[in-house]
Amino acid sequence: MVEISFDLRRPETDADWEAYYQCRWEILREPWEQPKGSEKDEHEADAYHVMAVDHEDIVLGVGRVHFNAPTEAQIRYMAVKEELREGGIGSLILTNLEQYAIDQGAEKIMLYARENAIEFYLRRGYFSQGPADNLYGQIPHLHMTKTIAKK
What is the model's pTM? Predict the structure, then answer.
């Protein structure tokens, strides 16, 4: 495990957005030979985005949450550079996204986890709802949800 200092922040400038989407594409799409642009969808403008950056403004990890319904949020595009996994970056991104969703009224958060991330989400209170469609017909996913306890 590599220890590194980083900050979480929302992408704001054009350079931030470019680096944010580049990170998403490199980790989540390029290994499956998907074209640039496949790392975006129709919810980009109405979603909450966060990225982890180091002291040189290099993006180390990213994540996004949007709402499917007034009380159901969906986390998507969680990605952390492989050599930095297990270092807490993903956990902090997820916590930030969840807190935003809760603050906006989410009572349930759902996501589709790749096989290599299932344990990560289980440790953070998510439960399996069964298999989801394979991305690009080759990347198995599991539908997972987390119910938010009412205060």
Answer: 0.91
